[in-house]
Amino acid sequence: MKRIFHIAAAVMLFPAAIGAQSSQEALAQAKNTIEDVQREYAPDARQTVFSIKAFNNNDGELVLAGESSDSTARLEVVQRLDKKGIAFADSTVQLPYNVWAQTRIPVASHRTGGRHAAEMATQSLLGTPLRVLKKGTDWWQVQSPDGYIAWVPSSSVVEKTPEEMSKWRKSKRFIVTSPYQIRVFRTADNTGLRNVVTDLVNGCIVTADVKSDNGHLHITLPDGREGYADASNFKPIEEWASQSFDPELILDLAYSMEGTPYLWGGMSTKALDCSGFAKTAYFANGIILMRDASQQALTGIRIAPENWKSCKAGDLLFFGNAKTGKVTHVAIYDNNGNYVHSSGRVKRNSIDPDSPDYLTTPFLSAVRIAGSEGTKGITRARNHPWYF
């Protein structure tokens, strides 16, 4: 909030100076400044809304318009133009930071635009904290904990006040650790087909009583619905978030999904794409990766393709265009050249050219996530302020 206050204060200063410089030269400088700031502070549109533009209005005045989800980027434009002595009217909009929601269904689909026909960009699991950037009637633009920005149906989420989110972060929470779908029932003693409240998948987060009734947790969903579920399928969120790096746990979940169908934008054990597969497996170990393979390839410790024999269990392997270096696919390495990935379905293949399971898709590089937790793009959930 402090950062936004400074922006608001700065904006108030500029209208009085309108007209001081509104020439084509000033406009060109403003456009160049915006481009420089975008390259430096908001290079990835998947992570940051930054649509600030400069133009001269009908009176010849220089105007800034558009919006930004990053207050630092917006302020940087204002300050750089101010230092250059360029007068302008600021009509830009700072998207809110402290407006929240949580996913209320087991798996919510997020799309590139506010319509069901838009491309699916990613998904979020029940209980996931989301930053709300824009609220429409049927669609909300939200940012996920990994920074990814997309549109989600308003019916898939429930709005939360800052106070409610603070209370949630301090509450007794449990995360689903079962590799398979589970059910929440209305009562602990009736697991009939007509007594289901919802299903849950690995990674869903609920609040719950620590005490169990007949081996069941009494849980509360983000929208207030209550029910009972087998306590053996859950782990206290603090325990989950405090895990040390465990490649065998990551691979266990990965292999448990073998045969699961590929789904572009999918990010749950129900169906997933290649990078969603890597994210889901790592999230089981309490680690939040970047969303897309091209983003994941820029994190961790890089291993050159010719050194693939030095790869260790849990390393990520990246494939794509050998000429351009463009990453289009990611897999999780196991051992002896073997890896598991989502391509058509979750399956096993090998990076070893001598293996019968070898695929000819060009191998570009590998990255080691182990030991890089806390670096850019690799976040321990226990250190993420949206969760704790």
The CATH topology annotation of the largest domain reads as: endopeptidase fold (from Nostoc punctiforme)
Please summarize the sheet with the most strands. Answer: 6 strands, antiparallel
Q: What Rg do the Cα atoms give? A: 24 Å
Count of domain modules: 4
pLDDT averaged over residues = 94
End-to-end Cα distance: 19 Å
Question: Which secondary-structure class do the elements indicate?
Answer: alpha+beta
The appropriate CATH architecture of the largest domain is Alpha-Beta Complex
Strand content: 25-35%
Strand neighbour order, sheet with most strands? 21-26-22-23-24-25
Shape: globular
CATH class of the largest domain: Alpha Beta
Question: Summarize this, please?
Answer:
With 388 residues, this protein is of the alpha+beta class. The protein has helices at 2-11, 24-41, 71-83, 162-170, 237-241, 247-256, 274-283, 293-296; strands at 53-56, 62-68, 89-94, 100-103, 107-111, 120-125, 129-135, 139-143, 149-153, 157-160, 173-176, 182-185, 196-200, 205-213, 216-220, 226-230, 234-236, 267-268, 271-272, 287-289, 301-303, 316-320, 327-333, 338-343, 345-350, 363-368, 378-380. It contains eight helices and 27 strands.
